[in-house]
Amino acid sequence: MEIEYEIKRKVFGQYLGQVAQWKNLEYTDKYETETMWDNVEYYIGNKAYLILKPLSEITDEDIIEVCKLQQEFKEQKDIKVSFDIDIKNKGCLDCCIEWDGYKHDYYQPVYSPTYQYLQLKGYDLPQYLLEGKTLQEVGLAIYE
User: Fold this and answer.
1) Global pTM value
2) N or C: which end of the chain has fewer CB within 10 A?
């Protein structure tokens, strides 16, 4: 899948503050690793990859925060959270929370607090700009 420069710029911009691995093509063939704070164009122009985590490795603490953001945090021990990619909605993230026989499905567009929280924590999420694919699937990220 060929990704236009402008799409790369938008996708990388969503992950400012995350660690990136990049190769300065002007000076060296060696990869450097650093936190990407600004100048997204520099990283894209220098063969960069974001270093992210797969959503399948979400921590218990992050699941609790997701439940709180959905206003579904219960003090029960039997909460199950699952994520799917909603192809009908251009690859947006779906979050399903279950407890005590109750199940609720939450559509997570990129502007939702849950989606932004998971990005902030460094999870590789499906991108509507990439037809529902994750950054790792299209070669813009590697997993730590």
Assistant:
1) 0.78
2) N
The DSSP 8-state label assigned to residue 18 in this structure reads S
Question: How many CB atoms within 10 Å of residue 40?
Answer: 20
Q: What is d(CA 76, CA 96) in angstroms, rounded to the nearest whole number?
A: 16
CA atoms 63, 104, 68, 54: torsion sign: positive
Query: CB of 20 within 8 A of CB of 33?
Result: yes
CA 102 vs. chain centroid, Å, equals 27
The whole-number mean pLDDT for each consecutive block of 10 residues of the chain, a chain of 144 residues, reads: 83 84 70 76 73 90 82 66 72 75 71 84 88 88 88
Beta strand pairing status for 19-23 and 49-54?
antiparallel
Instruction: Please give the pLDDT value at position 110.
Output: 64
CA 123 – CA 27 distance, rounded (Å)? 31
Characterize the bridge pairing of strands 31-35 and 19-23: antiparallel
